[in-house]
Design brief:
single chain, 332 residues, alpha/beta, D-Maltodextrin-Binding Protein, domain 2, 2 domains, 15 helices, 44% helix, globular
């Protein structure tokens, strides 16, 4: 009997009558972390903005994995800092950045024990991620104090452990981000600079391993991008605020004690989630995204930290994002 069923199935498959609808639908996994700027990815999932486009998408919290989820293909794509994608490339893994979607605009904070003399040569600075994403913020901060990376020692801890080492005095200065940075501030830390002090120094966006992205149909990638854009637009509607806060607390942060409306509003003031106009400007060839990537290459090269050469032209492909934006404009 089993043999008969197998023969029938094989005959059906070989007949050429199998359609795309008959095939097993692929579930796309998109990595993210608890960060208010990336909440639209949770909105898109919860509100069915991908499902209505015929996609099955699972949002994966990759906190604690650093970029391992992308590197080891546990996710297909990720919303992450552009510098993190560069960090993956520096490990010899080809990546593609599909677009810049937002940037940290004060949400990443440099916190010190000494308000009057925040950082000096010989200090140890703790970071939540020792890669090009955080390095670019650190470099600009050090430059403002006439210091270089060679003047300080940089150590990496996960965001929660970073607070503990700061409180115990193991590090004099840390770079952290909301909501984790809030605890360091409560424990006596002084904010001496933020990502808003150096606008555009920490852009974030969508990307992944090049071969994985190449395996995804372009129409599906367009739908994934369109879902994000719809979620951002939905989030900006004041009529959705109460539901937005509920989704953020349950899915983006998932903390035992939810953040109240004022705390969420405060976090939102410290990020810049791009609208349609900014998306177009930042993602054009030679635009802000390209400039950031080329500047990062220069910084790594000057610091003798460049392990694998790259440029905006080799890392970035915003063609699909631009297409989605153009199509959305034509529908208006």
């Amino acid at each position: 009997m089993r043999l008969l069923v197998l023969v029938i199935l094989l005959s059906y498959c070989c007949s050429g009558t199998v359609t795309a609808a008959d095939a097993v639908k692929r579930t796309y996994k998109i990595g993210t972390c608890p960060w208010i700027a990336w909440a639209p990815i949770n909105i898109a999932e919860v509100k069915g903005m991908w499902k209505k486009r015929g996609l099955d998408v699972e949002v994966v919290n990759q906190l604690g994995e650093d970029t391992g989820a992308i590197e080891q293909k546990r996710v297909d794509l990720a919303i992450d800092m552009i510098g993190n994608f560069i960090g993956i490339q520096q490990k010899g893994i080809d990546v593609t950045v599909l677009g810049e979607l937002d940037w940290s605009n004060g949400g990443d904070k440099i916190i010190s024990r000494n308000k009057l003399t925040p950082t000096k040569a010989g200090d140890t600075i703790g970071v939540y991620h020792n890669d090009p994403a955080v390095t670019m913020l650190l470099v600009k901060y050090l430059q403002s104090h006439k210091l270089t990376l060679n003047d300080v020692k940089v150590v990496e801890y996960d965001p929660e452990a970073l607070n503990g080492h700061f409180i115990l005095g193991a590090v004099s200065t840390i770079i952290s981000y909301e909501p984790f940075s809030l605890q360091a501030e409560k424990d006596g830390g002084f904010v001496v600079a933020t990502s808003a002090s150096f606008p555009g120094c920490m852009p974030e966006g969508l990307g992944g391993r090049r071969e994985v992205i190449a395996s995804i149909p372009k129409e599906d990638l367009k739908h994934i991008i369109a879902g994000w854009i719809e979620a951002v637009d939905w989030s900006r509607n004041p009529a959705n605020w109460v539901e937005y806060c509920a989704i953020v607390n349950k899915h983006t942060f998932a903390e035992p004690t939810p953040y109240d409306s004022d705390a969420i509003k405060e976090m939102l003031t410290n990020v810049s989630i791009h609208d349609h106009t900014t998306l177009i400007a930042r993602n054009t060839v030679g635009g802000g995204l390209s400039q950031f990537i080329d500047e990062t290459r220069m910084v790594l090269n000057n610091a003798k930290m460049l392990k694998s050469d790259f440029s905006a032209s080799t890392l970035v492909d915003t063609t699909l994002l631009q297409t989605v934006l153009a199509e959305a404009k034509n529908l208006k």
